[in-house]
Amino acid sequence: MNYQVIYFSRKGSTRKIAETIAAEIGVNAEDVKNTNLKDNALVFLGSGCYGGKPGKDMIEFIEKNNFKSIKVALFGTSGGGEGQETHEMEKILKSKEAKIKGKFFCKGKFFLMNRGKPDEEDINDAKNFAKSMIK
Length: 135
Description:
Blueprint: E1 2-8, H1 13-25, E2 29-31, E3 41-48, H2 56-64, E4 71-78, H3 84-95, E5 99-107, H4 120-133
């Protein structure tokens, strides 16, 4: 099976998780602004959380692409660490008939909060998530 890791990140937390997942499964992480959706791939989609939603560029990417029957694994980072960004992506993707395989989220940097996040434990959790999605 082919894999694709696509992310949107403003401060670098989600990019760090995307690069970790990509390295674990042997592909390159792709910025959502500079990529196209591949056919017949398990697609990992990730975003930071901005006002309780994924980044605008990620929402636009999801809305403009055909996800019917595409397997998707979601990941995200947020200052509060609640995963609202993944829940919102899931809602949009389900309306486009995507098949959600799993979700992962962790805390990310938020101004002066969560310094050092994502940390080594988050990185290990992201690696384990990636492995569990490709089984």
